[in-house]
Structures are given as C-alpha cells and as structure tokens.
C-alpha cells in the first residue's frame, strides 16, 4: 500500500506521524466523502496501546444521518477495519465510545532502534512543510545594555533555530540589532563634544571606554542640557542623511557594541547573522508607499498610521516629523524577508511585552495581503507564509523582582556566564575531578556544564511564565537540571566503555531485543523523541524536549536497575539499547544548545 501524508501537519518523520498517516489512509478508505484529517495521540495507559485514533466521535456526528452507523463505536470499528496492513502494527482494539487503540509491533520497534544507530539521528528528524525559515532572535540594542531579556531571546531563539535546522529546513538566523535609533545622535554628539575637533574619529575605542558608562553620561547631558539635546537631534539627521563623519562615528560605536555581544555569543556557541535595523532603512520608503497605495494608511496628528477594525491604538509607521520608527523597520523587514529572502515562516523571539506590537505588525501584513488570514481548521498547520511571535516572561531575582546584581546595576551577561562556569569548575575541583581530567578537560567541562545549566534552566520553563534565576538551583546535581542530565549521559558512556565492546561492531552483528518490560518502556520512550521535537516546533517551545530528556534518564535508570548490562547473556542487545539512549540524549542536548560530555 502506498501511503501519503494526509494532513499538512502530518509527516512520515515521527512514529506518531507514521501512525497518523496509517489512520489517515483508513479514514480515506472507510469514509471517502468525509475523509477527515486523522487525530492521533499517544495513549495515556500503555495497557490499551501505544497510540490512539480519536476521530470516531466527531465523525459519527457527520455520518449518523446516513443510518449505517448506530453509534460512535461502530464508526471506530469501521476505521479499525479499514486500517491498511503495516509492519508497524501488532494489534488494534476499540475502547469506550470508539477510540481505536494501536499497539506497535515489538519487532518493528527493535528494527527502528537499531536502524538509527546505523543511519544516524537525521533519519529521525520530523518533516516540516517549509523551505526557508527566518528566526529573528537575540536582537539587542547597540550601545544600550544587553540584558537578561536578550539572553532569554538568545537561548530560546537558538534552540528553536536548532530544532528547525534538524528537520533539514533552511534557517536564516537574524540578529535584528537596534542600530538606528535616535540614541546615536546623542552618542555621536557627546563623542564630538568630549573629543571634538578634527581628531574626533581617531582612537574612538579609547575615548569611549566602557560603552555603557559612556551611554549613561551622554544620556545625562541629553536630559539636562537643552542645547546638547538640540545638537543631538541634528546629529541624527546628519547620520541618517549619510554624512560621512557621522557615519564613521556610528560605525565605530557599533563595532564596540558588537564586540561585547560577540563575547556572549561565543560563550553560548550561538551563531547569528547581524541584520540590524539600519539594513532595512533604504527599503522603508518603498514599503510605506505600498501600504499607502493599498489605502491602509491614515494621517493622524501628522503621523502616518495603520488603524485596525475594533482596535483603538493604530500602528504608527511614520512619525509626525517624517522620521521612521521601530514599526516602520519591522514592516519593512517583514516585507523583505517574505519577498526578497523568500521565507515561508518568520519567527520573532522577544519578551511578551512586545506582543501587541507584533500583533499589529502581523495584522497590517494580513491587510496588505502579504500573509494569509488564519485558518479555521485547528488541527491543520497555519497556512504559509506564516509569521509567529514567540514571547517569553521576565527573569526574576531571588527577591521576586526583576533580576539585577547586588549593586542594582545592570547585569553584565558575560560576567553572569563566567560565574556559572566558575561555580562548575569549583564543584569539579571539590570532587577531585581536576586530578583525573587535567586542567584543560576540566576547563572545557566546566564551560559545557555551566553554560548548559544556564540554558537548560531557561528552556525547561514554560517560556511565557516569569522565571527565577538561581545559580544554586540550576547547578544542583540531583533533579531536573542540565548537570544531572549530563551526568546521566556520561554514566551511559561509562557503561559502554566498561564493557570493552565496540558499538560500531555490535550494530552490524547483533540485534536489539526488547524482552524485559523495562527495555520495552525505554525503547518506546526513545521512539517518541521525534514526535516530541515535532511538537516542540509546533508549540515553538523547547521545554517539551527538556521534559523528554529528564523522563528518558529516569526510564534509563529504571532499566539499568533491573537489567544487568555488562557480562549478562543479553549484553549485546542491552549495550545497543544504551547506545541508542546516548544518541538520543546527545541529539536532544544539541537541540537545546548544550554540549554533551564523554565523562564528567
Ligand atoms: N531590539 C529590540 C529590543 O531590544 C528587539 C528586536 C526584535 N526584533 C524585531 N524584528 N523587532 O527590544
């Protein structure tokens, strides 16, 4: 039987998607007129099966007039009967009012687990119906501080990009830095005033020193000195009209900021391509003209605005002085990404405080016909091109207030990351690891654990809730932390090492047998990896992957407590199962941006 995916959300990638494709086929065969998209879920109770099809009730409502079916259960039975033959399936049964339960064939599971060792984790990647995705994340503002909010955006955005990259879709990682705001007039003017004259452009790094301190000083003068304020505003006009001296000063200031950002990205191993606000500036007039021509704009108090039905606040796309703002740039960036870069999905990662801004930008794009209206079918993926705002909550300190350092100064992200690493190193030194590993490996491991802990503590949250930053908690050896999970993985590597066997040999000569109950449970959980990633992409939230990894380490522990591995009669099979667990864990870490370690 040739099977085709029957709904846009269904891919052949995950086991769940394959089961859904099977039920999709059954629904097409049994109910050719209605042919609904399959609703498939994992069974809560493994006694009944591994997956269930939930279409019977809603389908019964549609077909009951035809008299052929007495009740939803009869519809369920018809779906069951129409199910194509498949090596995946061990058995099916009907439960309650027509749920069709499906049990996977153990042999098929064993084969799929062995195959991933032979063919690689890429063969388990979910399939997505997109060609190119823009992920706009991190995006700090030049010259202003890069704060913990930007850290969250960096960590969450990177993980989302990693998950989509895993599926093989082209991802453009965009750093939409604020490099074009009015703050530059002030900074440039302050620079010229302080270090004025002809040599204003030489040795700027030295003159500026600490950019955040410099920013504060210039802001102070801006607020206190009306004459300076006036000259700053003229400086913005000069910069934006391309005056070479102002332009040069702007470039230098951006460079200094960039170096600070780079230090954070380098520690976190985050790749980003800078496409700041200034990049889109030349395209703004043409885009605003498009919006004007479509009749979407209104002049209100001299400003150009887009009003929305049933909403009081408009989106202002040109200020009354003719200048452009955040929204002018965002409308233009969206147009550019959809039309020039041919993205069919654009994802914006910022704090929830910007939700309304993005709602308005998305609505304006809909009205302009750039993106389609939302679909009414809740089971289907949104139509393309698709845009999403991924919002997240605040980072709080132990006191429940916005996270700050003791001095109530801003938190420098590099210092924060360095502290995480330092604490890990101390932990390792205390446990005598430095003697075993040597200085270099200890350093490397401390970085992996420290930065990994910061990332994991963030990613494991429901991204919308505020979360409390605590070094003590994120570095705990027990509980749902990166440290615990990295140890769990290192222990699996240790088991394999201890056996003295080569997985590369075993995977060619031996097979996996899921005979013990705990082996079966571990195997089933491993097979769910793909659908967990798929779901995390659909929800644009990596926390499902964290939960999966934590459950996986528990399942592994249960297996290891009851099933002897090394020197047991089942050694080959069990070592292979250990190897699959290690592969899946490593892939999971990779999606979270955490570096796995061979030993810890
Ligand atoms: N620079 C902005 C900020 O710090 C975030 C930019 C997000 N991306 C965008 N396309 N608006 O708040």
From TrEMBL:
Annotated InterPro entries: aa-tRNA-synth_I_CS, Arg-tRNA-ligase, Arg-tRNA-synth_N, Arg-tRNA-synth_N_sf, ArgRS_core, DALR_anticod-bd, Rossmann-like_a/b/a_fold, tRNAsynth_Ia_anticodon-bd
Protein's name according to its UniProt entry: arginine--tRNA ligase
EC numbers on record: 6.1.1.19
SUPFAM superfamilies for the chain: Anticodon-binding domain of a subclass of class I aminoacyl-tRNA synthetases, Arginyl-tRNA synthetase (ArgRS), N-terminal 'additional' domain, Nucleotidylyl transferase
Organism name: Klebsormidium nitens (Green alga)
Gene Ontology molecular function: any one: ATP binding
Keywords: Aminoacyl-tRNA synthetase, ATP-binding, Ligase, Nucleotide-binding, Protein biosynthesis
Membership in a protein family: Belongs to the class-I aminoacyl-tRNA synthetase family.
Stored Pfam families: Arg_tRNA_synt_N, DALR_1, tRNA-synt_1d
GO terms under biological process: arginyl-tRNA aminoacylation; post-embryonic development; reproductive structure development
GO cellular component terms given for this protein: cytoplasm
The keyword DNA-binding appears for this protein: no
Catalytic activity, as annotated: tRNA(Arg) + L-arginine + ATP = L-arginyl-tRNA(Arg) + AMP + diphosphate
Sequence ranges assigned to domain Arginyl tRNA synthetase N-terminal in this UniProt record: 17-104
Domain DALR anticodon binding positions: 485-600
Keyword Transport among UniProt keywords: no
